Records
---
Amino acid sequence: MDWERIRRDFPVTKEMAYFESAAMSPIPTPVFEAIMSEYRKLVEWGDANWCRDLERLNAVKSVCADMLNGREEDIAFVANTSTAMSMTGLSVHKKLEPDQHFLTMKDEFPSSTFPFSYLGIPLRTCEPDSARYSVSSLLEQINSKTAGIVTSYVQFGTGFRQDLLSLGEELKRRNLLFIVNATQGFPYFHIDVKEMRIDVLAASLHKWGMTGHLGSLFYTAPEFRAKYPTAVAGWLSIDPGEGLVPGQMNSSPEIHSSAQQYTLGTINLQLLMAFKTALDYIQKIGLDVIRKRLFTLTDYLLDGLSDCSVEVISPHRSYAERSAIVSFKVGKKSPECVTFLRKNKIYVSQRNDAVRAAVNIFNNFNDLDRLLDGVQNFCDKIPLS
Ligand SMILES: Cc1ncc(COP(=O)(O)O)c(C=O)c1O
């Protein structure tokens, strides 16, 4: 793979060493051109293509479904993961017994958890062991009042990647719900919703989807929708029968049985169309090739960090638990280190009390050397205690 050619598709690389894809991936030029072309159609044709674009959206759903081993009709796009989790919570809430709870992880991003707690759904938090949540430790926390587990695939702060396959199998055996926030894992890391027995999966696409702020992918298993149909609806959730617009006086509207029920109304079709270009771009490189590259880059970074006075907090002994995120603490001075690096055009972020660096397909070893030199320079200059 000619990684330098890929790098040229990302103008951001001329400006800085960019390690913030876990916040938002920059947009590569072919995707930017697709966005422009979709918006140009609005300029030149107004609403004339809207119905056709709604049809084209099915092709985007179909690509996502193939990547997840789901079905096109199980995919929806919603404004963000907080919305997807709120919709899930609203559906489930009605059918929970008052003393039931969900298990979740202590360092979850709040869009996995806050929607549930705000609705009054009790959450019990599992504590990590050196940033890891082993499946066995989670199973130990389950009791007769547990309704299911809400977890990220990849933890946003540490990059720990959960073993969804083992966890999903165990939950299915116990007839418990499995709700996954795949924001920091999709599309690069393997997900098979069927094998992993996932009931609900949401992924904010602005992280690794390379198309800007386009919303979240929202997968629901058909059995989940049958048992917990959407608690909110809009005109596009309803099967109109004939034509496009359902009759306004229709007093008992028929909700789509597919995930279309979650598409309440009009959404940003332009960015979603361009997202297909991003997925095609990624798939042309190949997901296996990408994962290998990410591990090569993070191996190099971890190796370099072992020579610096930092504490790597990302679990990194096993590739199965690793992701594109490497987080480390620089004594008590991680926030100052982030500021120092950014001043030197090395773009990392602070999450909790650590420096978070996320590598992507456009990063090269030169970027990593800049980051490592930057961290070393900071440690040399600043007393860390
Ligand atoms: C794991 C995770 N989930 C979700 C989000 C974003 O949530 P939302 O789509 O609700 O803005 C982030 C980061 O912003 C994240 O790191």
Note: The mean pLDDT is 96.
---
Amino acid sequence: MKKGDSANGRCQCGALQFSVRFPTKWMAHCHCTMCRRAHGAAFVTWVGVEDASFELADPDGLLRWYASSPGAERGFCSRCGSMLFFRSQRWPGEIHVVRANFDSALDREPQAHVFYDTRVSWFEVNDALPKRPPPAS
Ligand SMILES: [Zn+2]
Ligand SMILES: [Zn+2]
């Protein structure tokens, strides 16, 4: 892939690497309780990517999927524990990738806050992005 057409990312230990070809579909901060617990964070920033634009390199077979809710799974590295991916029957043909695990700029910046009604009380959001109760679809 040409520089500028794609971005690469990885887990903390580096055993799992991935690349995403642009364009991505969307980027949003998710404040849902499951993202917050799974990642140990106030919110998680996700990038939506078409399956066909996503490539995974997992030579040691470390990727595991946790069924976090009916029809939805969260992918993580079984060596270092990095939470990397989300996929759901609700968004067929699409994988959600954690923004923080990319090494470089993407083709867009965050566009919205979703599940904003379940946000934590101990972090104040001070941007002008749309703040939605349900997820972007
Ligand atoms: Zn790892
Ligand atoms: Zn979420």
Note: Strands lie at 6-10, 17-21, 26-30, 44-50, 54-57, 63-69, 72-77, 83-88, 94-98, 112-114.
